[in-house]
Amino acid sequence: MKPLYSVAQIRAVEQLVAATLEPGALMQRAGQAAANGVLALLAGQANRSVLLLAGPGNNGGDALEAAANLAGAGAGIDVAVIYLAGSALASAETAQALGRAHDAQVRFLDALPDSAPALVVDGLFGIGLARALDGAARVMVEALNALGWPVLALDVPSGLDADTGAIVGPDGVALRAGRTLAFIGNKIGLHTFEGRDVAGEVEVASLAIDAHYFPPASAELNQAALFANQLKPRANNSHKGSFGDVAIVGGARGMAGAAMLTARAALYSGAGRVLVAALDPGPAFDSVQPEIMFRDGATYPLGVGTLVMGPGMGGSALAMDMLARALPGAAALVLDADALNLIGASVDLQKRLGARTAPTILTPHPLEAARLLGISSLEVQRDRLAAARAIANRFNAIVVLKGSGSVIAAPGGAAVINTSGNPGLASAGTGDVLAGICGSLLAQGWPAREAALGAVWIHGTAADRLVSQGIGPIGLCASELPQAVRAVLNELVYGTAKNG
Ligand SMILES: NC(=O)C1=CN([C@@H]2O[C@H](COP(=O)(O)OP(=O)(O)OC[C@H]3O[C@@H](n4cnc5c(N)ncnc54)[C@H](OP(=O)(O)O)[C@@H]3O)[C@@H](O)[C@H]2O)[C@@H](O)CC1
Ligand SMILES: [K+]
Fold first, then answer.
1. ipTM attached to this prediction
2. Atom of ligand 1 nearest to the CA of 184
3. Pocket residues for ligand 1 (CB within 6 Å)?
4. Which positions bind (6S)-NADPHX (predicted)?
5. pLDDT digits (tens, 9 = 90+) for 301-349
6. Cα(2) to centroid of ligand 2, in Å?
7. Tally of domains within the chain
């Protein structure tokens, strides 16, 4: 498990542990871990100067401890500190760390140096950030963001909400780090919404705290281990009926492409048979993918198999009627795009959705999630985990809240945050592909939660693979994903994939 904790949980662990240790011991461990991290990053570099930013709280204390350790490390490092002390008295631990930094002959500066250090260490604010950055801290963060000097954030990049991944506002700023060294435990906000962009690569220094001090995690990071029990090699004695049927209900006039992308994704991720139940007469076949069958949606039986409803479905009376008929049925459902918008606008459809017992996956982006919850997309983004959990609980379904750090939530269950994927996925049709993978895995017998976890991981990993081959992120097309999805899934099952 790759656990994620809330700030309240980390505070509780810290209190329990601190009571068993000498005062300042945890800060000294954090400072040592930070210094070790800096030394590793500086290995082999000719530039040996490090600038540490220390804020008024204990995050600043960590930076001062790190500065003292680096100055005393005998590694030829030029250590400079900018200390932005607050108006209130520093904690005893931070005061002690300040003394150690002075004793170690660290240089204290009043302003940013003229020449670039090898590394900036951000110890301005951590989990104690209480409001938007302002004054000298804001000026410094904006200047550093403009300069682009490499930054290692201690615990949390300054300005980021460690619970939600939002930049604390109004009109907030956060210091963009290439890396973040999280203390005690990994934090939710480093991995979703703005978190991935602001925190960069995240490492955890547990400060030698024993596992028994930790409560059950609030959430966890997605990884192949979470759906590995479904990754089974195929029997030689199998046939297309062994791997399920997926019907894509969508493709209204002018939007046939969305349904085709979903169908291709379902096919390339292993469904036995894939068809499009089209709402309007469109193309009779897909000339690129002739394996896909086409049916008239109006007469298609909606009570069996696996249905992916929504891609290019539109908002017609027929679309509404098909949803009303499908929701009470026994078919496993993936609901995406227009299906979600129709449900968001209809109390009757919401009731039908909430009463379902067959497997159901909802794949909203933030605006669709907002419509389902009757709030704004900004509110959804301000707490993505809460929004995903609320939808899962309200509609008794597995939810994939898309966006940077997609959140997968189950009713009453711990949320999972996905880490694969890149901005190449921020383009038309990639959501249709994701829905197709979800439907395909459901049709192959995966339970809904594993299907959602697997689909999101594989979809993001496929995009990462394309980018590593020079295909995107700029201009990555949704129609390029299915083949990469096939490669990733086969490697997972047959053995050579990196399981992240
Ligand atoms: N607890 C642990 O688990 C361990 C914690 N450790 C470390 O301590 C960090 C938490 O320390 P912390 O609680 O002192 O909070 P921190 O992030 O330094 O900031 C609070 C200070 O900033 C101030 N302030 C807040 N917002 C502001 C703003 N916008 N603009 C200006 N000022 C603002 C606020 O004062 P206020 O003005 O609100 O009264 C207060 O003075 C944690 O992230 C980790 O790095 C480790 O040593 C190991 C164990
Ligand atoms: K920080």
1. 0.98
2. 3
3. 10-11, 14, 26-27, 30, 55-62, 86, 88, 125-133, 137, 154-156, 183-184
4. 58-62, 126-132, 155, 258, 312, 365, 432
5. 999 999 999 999 999 999 999 999 999 999 999 999 999 999 999 999 9
6. 22
7. 2
